[in-house]
Predict the 3D structure of the following.
Amino acid sequence: MVSNVLVTLILLLLFLISVGGAPIDAEVKQFPGFDGEFPSKHYAGYIGLGDEEHKRHMYYYFATSERNPSEDPITLWITGGPGCSGLDALAHLVGPFEVVPDTFHYTKQPKTRLSPYSWTKVSSILSVDSPVGTGYSYAENADDYITNDDKTVSDLYDFLIKWYSEYPEFLPNPLFLAACSYTGVIVPPLAQEIAKGIYEENDPAK
């Protein structure tokens, strides 16, 4: 039984990889305040969740590993708050950019440069604005801005399932979950949902 399921998943994975990869129109070529060449491929966009009455749009920024993106792990990063944009982590915490000292002023756009301490040296970083209403993530129904930890976990799990359907070539890569501040509360139940989905043989590409 297990071997049959494994063969099916492998065949599905090979099919998905053969029909496409990262969306071409999602590739990022510029970052605010940065002049230079990216050290790896970057992508950004929206993943749609919900139904016709409760459409939610989760914004993500995906910076691939500078070392070996086809084999290095993917780290899903959720910034704390709740309600802090994942973009904050890209320029202040774990991402490939850092703000150049003495360039930040409320009348000017700050300069950014490549960070020598970026986690993208060894891992791809998938940053998401969560919950809806954070950063660039938005809902079409005002009621969906009223949220709680359970809804946040559910949306993040659905986000991951749909994100992998757009980036199927990264399905074989190890996945790590990381967060700061309050979102440390979100990581354990999200990991539990992922483990439950694997146990119940829910394919992440559905």
